[in-house]
Amino acid sequence: MSWVTEHPPARVDLDACVTCGLCLPVCPTFRLTGDETASPRGRLAAISAVDAGVLGIDERFSDVIGFCLQCRACETACPSLVPFGDIIERATAEVVAQMPSTVSRVRRFAATTGVGTPWIMRGGSILLGIAQRLRLAGALERLGIPASGLRRIPIPLPTARGGSWGASDAPTAMLFVGCVADVWFAEIHQATIEVLLAAGYRVESPKAQTCCGALAAHDGLTDNAERMSAANSSAFASADLIVVNVAGCGSHLKADPELGSRVRDITEVVADAISDGRLETLPANGTSVAIQDPCHLEHGQGIVDAPRAVVAAAGYEVVDADRDGLCCGAAGTYLIDYPETSTELGERKAAAVRAGGTKIVASANVGCEMQLRRFLDDSYDIAHPVEFYARARRGK
Amino acid sequence: MTFIEELVALLGPERVRHHPLDLIVFSKDAGVTSGKVIAAVLPEHTQEVAAIVRIARRHDTPIVPRGAGTGLAGGAVPVEPGLIVVLTRLNEIHEVDEVGRTAWVGPGVINLDLSRSLEPVGLHFAPDPSSQQACTIGGNVATNAGGPHCLADGTTIAHVLAAELVTADGSVVVVGSEAPDLPGLDLRAVVVGSEGTLGIITKVLVRLTENAPDVATLLIGFPTIEAAAGTVSGIIASGLIPAALEIMDQPMVVAVENFVHAGYPTDAGAVLLAEVTGTREGVKSGVAVISAIASRNDATEVRVATDSAERAILWKGRKSAFGAVAQAAPDYYLHDTVVPRTALVEVLRKIYEIGDRYDLHMLNVFHAGDGNLHPLVAFDARKPGMLERVQAAATEMVEVSIEAGGSLSGEHGIGLEKRHLMHLVFSDVDLDAQARVREAFDDAGMMNPSKILPEGSRCFDASGVRL
User: Taking CB atoms and an 8 Å limit, are B30 and A42 in contact across chains?
Assistant: First the structure.
């Protein structure tokens, strides 16, 4: 039998591919290698062959599937509307189920226990914070821990989990705080809350929420992802609007059958509030900001205009960091198993930003932000679009 | 050493693929047939390609070159178990002569990448097949590819000055030259469109075209496909040569619009996408001429794309047409016939008739300006007898095109898919002559065998014996 999990790649989805090849040029791994087996079409052919029972799941299959960054740029390019992200997650889960040793122990830990257990997350973060203060980020980087991509971690550690802000009669926006974002990117949450309040929302952040499970799902650890999804479903049971400010989490949560329809990215919420006048458009400040399009915002959620609208309303001139560019290579825990590819893509993205000349960059995904920080020097100001808007409001 | 061992000694294990997964993945291109792969290799420069050819020759193994695998005629499919030579890594733009407007490029350079990289100097590579974002220059040369803008600019042959190729004996030769008119036979014209049967193209000297100072794209809706085709005839008769004239019928428009959301009128019987380029004044008058002819032909809507973003999305719709067919059925089969423009309406009517008679789901999208039809059948190959029915209908469609004074292929190549129809346009003597040319380049019959020419083309191999 070719598949063993409960939800293997669906035949109807595989059949949607007519093998036209329009996905090839947008695929980062195909671009780097020119290799059909490293392309979306090639991966689909391999998965289809397993489904048809003419190919087994082995080391080679595992490699072909694992090498995919799951950036989903191919979905945007696909005229046949093949749900590639879903197919590759299911294929990955099959690989993990049939060849458990395929996901490295480090990757498995990072994607599940690491991000899903608050005390481990926080304990590790304190150690990272201390290492930053001892100027050891470079040394950690050499050990394969991407510490130079972090913002400075405040000690004591912050958290937005369990808080509520604003007038009780206002419509409630429930804030999804995420795992690493809550500890490492507290300023983004602060800016998000500030801007949501200004837009007339009450903000609440349920205490019982946990990691979204995207990392676990990408790594084929379906059970872990489902447990996280169940926890979040109950934590957000009463929510009408769930606001997410990390594109990777938002993309995963939007596909959740329970939560999906109520999830919105912060840039969508703010852009709407700007266009209907609940939030003001601030005067032009003569500075330009380069917009980086996170894959899981652009391809995962189909959002391209909203971050631009938010940054423009903050008074900046908006330019593209790398429109139509490839994934930056962060891709969750990808770096752990494919450091060379991740680095090559990170360098490419950084080179594109440098070539643009703008030293201020807006990224709506913390994973991309970390990757940009690793490959761009400290003279670059990298922040979330909503932070630019919040900063401009504070300064007006 | 075995064949594989020799290849590994040359290229290393990463660039020699023979795992079952690789054999499956490299067994087909964008068409409907698949072949048998012995191994796939990924060379990085000309000398490696030459060494690969020599090894294959020693082991009497056929070679099939492959670019991005976007071909629709099975050109990159090995009919006889063969070695796939993947040329995507020969993707360097070697040198650009901005003044002379030429560039030496690797066969693995993606068509649109070349034009994009030339944007700063105001030049582009004119052939623009629908797959231009993905397909490679090597494949364009091999199939003499066309595209919407070939109406004004001509197909690939008009944009290739020279090519370097590795022939079956492993030698590297250059056909054509930078000089405009070389004495002797024009072998360049023989190599362009030869679909890998004469050798493996490892470098191409392309002609570059200046970007037009002004462009306008019109999207025009019509109640019927006849009205759209009538407009095209009217435009050509007026003496205006637009950059492109493309028609899509209603089923095609519906599928495309569902993907691009460009505002294509899904209630129109057909739409015409027209583009005029030139000076500001020239474009303005071109738009006026086309609009007037369209309204005489009962156009229901004329939309002029005003900025580059709007133009881009309209073209994205047209260029995604083949892929969008999957929304209707998992497989599609398409033909690439050419008919005289005056016969467009009549041939289209017959093609729809054939589709109805075989009870097939037909969609039509075509380069109306030069009479290049792409009737497209969406079907499910797993239904028993379906593929045979589709192929029978397709053969009839080709026959009506040829009866009307047309031809077998406009731009996709003959490959594997259409070689059995070559006798419709060529006599035995013609085919024998072509087979002789082929033998002059490839005495071993190892370069992409069983492509273009039907079996038995050479008078003495009627028995099927390959010499």
Answer: no
